[in-house]
Specification:
The complex is a heterodimer. Chain A is built from seven helices and seven strands; from the N terminus they run E-H-E-H-E-E-H-E-H-H-E-H-E-H. Chain A is an alpha/beta fold. A seven-stranded mixed beta sheet of chain A has the order 2-3-4-1-5-6-7. In chain A, a hairpin with a 2-residue loop joins strand 3 and strand 4. Chain B is an alpha+beta fold. In chain B, strands 1, 2, 3, 4, 5 and 6 form a six-stranded antiparallel beta sheet that branches. Chain B has a four-stranded mixed beta sheet with strand order 13-16-14-15. A three-stranded mixed beta sheet of chain B has the order 7-8-9, with helices on one face. In chain B, helix 4 crosses helix 5, helix 5 runs antiparallel to helix 9 and helix 6 packs across helix 7. The longest helix of chain B is centred in the N-terminal third of the chain and has 49 residues. The chains are: A alpha/beta, B alpha+beta. Chains A and B meet through strand 1, strand 2, strand 3 and strand 4 of A and helix 8 of B.
């Protein structure tokens, strides 16, 4: 079965782990984030009736004390960025994270999940920000860990893109 | 100015053609610039030739290199510095490329070096534990001897019990699982996740300690499990081992990983997440799955055991053969000793060959049969090769046997040898006694024959005669020594019988003498009775002499009342003892037999 490595990247507290938790198969606990800095899950997706396994590297959120290890990003077939729609700084640092990912994994399909979409009243991102991301060729999706909205779609998009790309990374 | 012109050589050439100036000017020009012009033309020619030559050299280069390399090492020497700097430049710029290229070459070399180092280590352990003495140590030592394994390895073997439970082939860059091998009884569902995590942990450790590729985490332990990760440029080979993995497992993993790199180079280059191309590598991984228990013995030990299985019947056979040889040897010694002590047998030479006994020697014809003696000892006389020369033995038993044979000795006579005298004792016929006595030549070993111990037995008719004489008795009246006429007539038959007897015995070399025993009844004094008994004997003797009996054959024995006779039917004892009784004594004739006279 075709396998693809997908790294999930975002700042600390963007809700990455919670977002995918109920959609993926996991055998490792979140403790790994604070120790090894990554926890690996699996997500099975069908692309045009062909099964694809996404091996999801859920990287520990970046914060002031912990950077994202470039070695984890190496060889990724796609990057799953997560931004907290209620925290502006998670959006602001996206460019920096993208640069990190590009340096380690090259130009690969990338998706940005604007998470916590259920918290509409605290939402800080406007049309302008979304348009800016889209202009950079990034796939945008509004997601919610609470409702599960957008998550399956995100995985489907990632799977399709990685298969279409044929794993050829620049 | 010269430099300027030199950069434009065509100018010089053109002016030379377009200016047909005076001879002076041409001469001046030639004087000033001629030399330089020639040099410039030459240079131009060279430049043109060079570009033309590059093409030709490109064509010729491979052949030329081959040609020169075949001739001597000059080319290699010339190129060496260039090659060296080229390689170091390449390594400086992109070490990964070179590492990938030489990985399959370096692996075996490093392994070999490690193996040698390990051998040295085992040696030193060997020395260290050599003197450790305990029951267990002794048992291991015996095992080492039995299996032909160095002692140190036996010690290690008992310490090592392990099971390789899973083997992962992991794509180095992505951490994706390429192949996973596990025993059928072990259900592993999340090998892909473990694979990713193993890669992550590798990266994590590498990053944490700022190590380069070479310094990545190689083994780590979790409780009873040890995870060995062998890293190659394209892939990792990770083994999950329960217990203590041996050094050989590490070597095995390295070897497999190198093989994978060699065989799947194309698959690695094209890898985009589909592990199908690596499926053929599964057997390579499965070979690494092994369970080694403490009671399992290495192959060599099993072959030793197989040899032992052969050794048992061989030893048994050897034992039987040995026992047979020992028994045969014992029988042989016993047989030789027995024959040597046997009278009348002298062994000169005795030896054994395959299944045969050989004897050479002397044997008295009367000695026991050697074959019978050997058969009695349980020997197989079919394989007996004996040659006995006859001889006469002077062993007493054989001298006696020979004498017995020569004398036709009856069973009632025993012979006894004392020095060279043979004593015959017992009862024998008068005929035999006379024949023995008259034997001209005594058997070898006998100088004298003594027959005095023999009681001669008369032939039946003579015995009758003797009885007739001895049944007669001359009776006397009380106190009288006078023969009464009836009694006197009775003496006729006594004399006749005695004469016949004497004639017969004298032919056999014996003489028959008549003893006349005079007796009295118990009345009266002994002196009177003694005298009376003499008178009675004296009364009878003259009568017998008158009847023709030679006087030397008569002997009077006056007994008085001594040695009285018992009473007879119709006669009381006193009457019986007032008598002269007759006893015939047959003795060997001391002189020539009577018949020859």
């Amino acid at each position: 079965m075709n396998q693809k490595k997908v790294c999930m990247v975002g700042l600390f507290g963007t809700g990455k782990t919670s977002l995918v938790q109920q959609f993926v198969h996991s055998i490792f606990s979140v403790k790994y984030h604070s120790t090894v800095g990554v926890k690996i899950d699996r997500k099975a997706v069908d692309v045009d009736s062909t099964p694809v396994t996404l091996v999801l590297w859920d990287l520990a959120g970046r914060d002031a004390s912990q950077d994202i290890p470039a070695s984890y990003l190496r060889g990724s077939h796609a990057i799953f960025f997560v931004v907290d729609g209620t925290r502006r700084e998670t959006f602001d640092q996206l460019a920096e994270l993208r640069e990190l990912a590009r340096a380690a994994a090259g130009e690969v399909p990338s998706l940005v999940a604007l998470n916590k979409a259920d918290l509409a009243d605290q939402w800080v991102l406007g049309q302008a920000e979304e348009a800016a991301l889209a202009a950079q060729g990034l796939q945008l999706l509004k997601t919610s860990a609470k409702t599960g909205a957008g998550v399956e779609e995100a995985f489907r998009w990632l799977a399709r893109e990685t298969v279409r790309e044929g794993g050829k990374r620049a | 100015m010269a430099d300027d012109r030199a950069s434009r050589p065509e100018y010089l050439g053109l002016t030379a053609e377009y200016d047909p100036a005076s001879a002076e000017f041409a001469e001046l020009r030639e004087l000033l610039l001629g030399e330089e012009r020639r040099k410039l033309a030459e240079l131009q020619q060279r430049v043109e030739a060079q570009s033309r030559n590059a093409e030709e050299v490109a064509e010729l280069l491979p052949e030329a290199v081959a040609l020169r390399s075949g001739r001597d090492r000059q080319l290699a020497r010339a190129l060496a510095p260039t090659m060296e700097s080229a390689i170091s430049e390449s390594v400086r710029r992109n070490p990964r490329e070179i590492a990938t290229a030489i990985f399959p070459v370096l692996g075996p070399a490093i392994r070999k070096a490690l193996a040698e180092a390990m051998a040295g280590l085992v040696d030193s352990i060997n020395r260290a534990v050599e003197h450790a003495f305990s029951i267990r140590g002794l048992a291991w030592r015996i095992e080492a001897w039995r299996t032909g394994t160095p002692y140190a390895q036996i010690v290690l073997k008992h310490a090592l019990v392990y099971r390789v439970e899973q083997v992962f082939l992991i794509h180095a860059e992505t951490g994706l699982l390429l192949v996973h091998a596990a025993p059928p009884d072990l259900k592993v569902t999340d090998a892909d996740l473990i694979s990713g995590m193993l890669t992550a942990i590798q990266d994590f450790v590498g990053d944490s300690f700022q190590q380069q590729e070479a310094g990545k985490l190689r083994t780590f332990s979790v409780g009873e499990l040890t995870i060995i990760v062998e890293a190659g440029p394209q892939a990792l080979l990770a083994a999950v081992v329960r217990g203590q993995p041996p050094e050989t497992l590490l070597l095995k993993l390295q070897e497999r990983l190198e093989t994978v790199h060699l065989q799947f180079a194309a698959a690695f280059a094209d890898f985009s997440g589909d592990p199908a191309a690596f499926a053929p590598a599964r057997p390579l991984l499965e070979e690494c799955l092994e369970t080694v228990l403490s009671h399992q013995r290495p192959r060599a030990a099993r072959s030793r055991l197989a040899a032992l299985r052969w050794a048992i019947p061989v030893l048994l056979l050897a034992g039987i053969l040995g026992w047979l040889a020992w028994r045969s040897n014992r029988r042989w010694s016993a047989a030789v000793a027995r024959l040597e002590t046997e009278p009348g047998i002298e062994i000169v030479e005795a030896w054994r060959s395959l299944g045969k006994w050989h004897f050479r020697g002397l044997k008295d014809p009367l000695a026991a049969e050697p074959a019978a003696i050997l058969a009695g000892l349980g020997a197989d006389t079919a394989g007996l090769d004996a040659r006995w020369e006859p001889y006469l033995s002077l062993e007493p038993s054989l001298v006696i046997a020979r004498a017995r044979q020569a004398l036709s000795t009856p069973a009632t006579v025993t012979l006894r040898l004392s020095r060279d005298s043979l004593y015959a004792e017992g009862e024998a016929s008068l005929l035999w006694v006379s024949r023995a006595a008259g034997l001209g030549m005594l058997p070898p070993g006998v100088s004298h024959l003594n027959l005095t111990g023999i009681a001669p037995r008369l032939p039946p008719e003579l015995e009758t005669l003797k009885a007739q004489i001895e049944n007669r008795m001359v009776l006397f009246e009380i106190g009288s020594a006078t023969l009464d006429p009836t009694e006197r007539t009775a003496l006729d038959s006594v004399a006749a019988s005695l004469l016949r007897l004497r004639a017969a015995t004298s032919r056999l070399g014996y003489r028959a003498d008549l003893e006349l025993q005079g007796r009295t009844d118990p009345t009266g004094t002994d002196a009177i009775n003694q005298s009376l008994s003499r008178s009675r004997v004296d009364a009878v003797i003259p009568v017998l002499i008158r009847l023709g009996v030679p006087s030397e054959g008569l002997r009077g024995v006056p007994l008085g009342t001594g040695n009285p006779l018992p009473g007879r039917a119709g006669q009381d004892q006193a009457q019986v003892n007032r008598s002269v009784a007759f006893v015939v004594r047959v003795t060997p004739e001391p002189v020539a037999p009577e018949g020859s006279r």
